[in-house]
Amino acid sequence: MVKKDINIVIFGSTGTIGINSLNVIRNSKTHKILALSAGKNIELLIKQITEFKPKYVSVSNKIDKIELQKKFNEIKFFDGDEGLKTLATLNNADLIISAIVGFAGFIPTYYAIKNNKKVALANKESLVAGGFLFSKKEIKNMIPIDSEHSAIAQILQNRDKKTIKRLIITASGGPFLNYSKKEMENITKKDALNHPNWSMGDKITIDSSTMVNKTLEIIEAHYFFDLPYEQISVVIHPQSMIHSMVEFTDSSIMAQLAYPDMKIPISQAIYYPEIENFSYESMDLTKLVNISFIPPNFEKFPSLNFAKLVIENPKLGVVLNRANEVAVEAFLNDKIKWNDIYKTIKTAIENYNLANINSIEDLKKVDNEVKIFTQNLIDSFQK
Ligand SMILES: NC(=O)c1ccc[n+]([C@@H]2O[C@H](COP(=O)([O-])OP(=O)(O)OC[C@H]3O[C@@H](n4cnc5c(N)ncnc54)[C@H](OP(=O)(O)O)[C@@H]3O)[C@@H](O)[C@H]2O)c1
Q1: C-alpha distances in angstroms, 38 versus 16, 101, 265?
Q2: Is the CB of 107 under 6 A from ligand 1?
Q3: pTM, 2 dp
Q4: Domain-terminating residue out of 144, 164, 192
Q5: Closest ligand 1 atom, CA of 18?
Q6: What is the tens place of the pLDDT at every residue in 217-234?
Q7: From the CA of 122, how far away is ligand 1's center (Å)?
Q8: What's the CA gap between 352 and 320, in Å, rounded?
């Protein structure tokens, strides 16, 4: 019998994860690109369309859609949220890679999952903001791309949840691990965009510098592995070689090691249970003499405290997520200082403790309210 191609839809194809996903799929004999979705980087998107020949493409703006449609008349183009929804629910889509940055990525994740699609999830914001809108069964249709969650999923395979004592999520500590509180007052954009181990999009790089990224990952792990906050710990491991660990009830610990390259967890998500042959040199374990573990500093990185709060009050996730997105954007646009990111999120969370959210429409409404609240808050900092 001829084996059917596996049709992939990539959301965020022009981003770091999207580009790496295309690199992973480029020479595949089994996996084909059915659809691509990008934001505004039309120049790169055109190159991707020319090489991968998708049948469907979605972009953020209507004008870009119209221009692209004139150029490629054999492809169907879409735009905006409707475009994201259409691509996420294509009948012949077998795997959805959800790699848009921020809350915008919730829309394709949501509609794909509600239409019983398998989703390889990079967009952790989907679970942080709206994880409570998915059932446990639906979350089982999500495969983690985040390296930490991919590591844990690989360690756990089919282990019973009862055998887990705790998850140990590793964190590089970011560029400011050894900064004093005084030094943290004058962090520049250039400093914050300089991650020691990973090359990523700007938003997640800033999130790593504030450790909000680890906060989002604790919440993501809570949903992925259905465990309470008390069973999810974080350890700083500056070398980023161990991507996470699991301690079992007999106190044994299993770790997953790999080079810090997102192509590895992406290919795990796409090809599992197969394993791709990457042409890396084997890791020389005798050179790993400096592997170290340090406890996280909740005082220097107070955003870590938001994880417990959100896991205990899941509807606050949308507030944490959007306030952070607005604050990171303001920092990148030189409107606020690095330290103000934490202050902004804290103030937003203190103002929204009872969000009545029962549907995607409610979630989008609250997300928009928080956006306006946070933007006004940031404007008031500047006066
Ligand atoms: N980078 C990593 O190593 C890494 C690791 C783990 C998890 N993640 C997660 O993966 C996600 C993507 O991260 P990234 O680093 O790849 O980000 P990125 O490089 O900034 O790329 C973001 C992608 O999202 C698209 N996009 C942005 N806003 C959009 C909108 N409103 N509608 C449609 N598309 C939109 C962008 O399109 P244009 O560029 O065309 O505008 C781009 O394709 C994030 O959730 C991040 O937390 C990333």
Answers
A1: 12, 11, 21
A2: no
A3: 0.97
A4: 144
A5: 16
A6: 999 999 999 999 999 999
A7: 9
A8: 10
